[in-house]
Amino acid sequence: MTTVLQSPYRPSDDEPFMNPRQLEYFRQKLLAWREEILKESQETLVHLQEDTIQEPDIADRASTESERALELRTRDRQRKLIGKIDSALRRIQDGSYGYCEETGEPISLKRLDARPIATLSIEAQERHERRERTYREE
């Protein structure tokens, strides 16, 4: 069952957490983000296919190759991001979206609005990053 949102709808702490309206809001936000990434990826592919002219100047060729490498790294990061978006969409389906994977507590609506793929609360994320820094320094 799809919930229809009245625009402009913004999730609020005044309503039950992860009610059907909030879930639909985040589902639409994630789908729009995913669509935008896929569109950009398609544009990159077209650009890379069109841009097959060999530059006669070695400096121009190096510059072109560098730009291509950067574009491909960006697309790879976006491909991984699509996986995280798909995972968030699955969590919406199974009812676990919006809850911290570490503590089970609700993730703040502000955090989810800013980063709808978040799986950890801010506190859990900070603990995770501190542990990561500690292990990297050893």
Write up this protein.
With 138 residues, the chain is mostly helical. The protein folds into 2 domains: 80 residues, DksA, coiled-coil domain (Four Helix Bundle (Hemerythrin (Met), subunit A), Up-down Bundle); 41 residues, no CATH class. The protein is built from 4 helices and no strands. The radius of gyration is 20 Å and the shape is flat.
List strands and helices in order, with pairings.
Layout: H1 20-50, H2 58-94, H3 109-114, H4 122-137
Tags for this model:
single chain, 138 residues, mainly alpha, Four Helix Bundle (Hemerythrin (Met), subunit A), 4 helices, 65% helix
Could you give the order of the helices and strands? HHHH
Largest sheet: none
SS content category: mainly alpha
Helix content: 55-70%
User: Tell me, what's the shape?
Assistant: flat
Tell me the CATH superfamily of the largest domain: DksA, coiled-coil domain
Mean pLDDT reading: 88
Describe this structure in a few short sentences:
The protein is mainly α and 138 residues long.
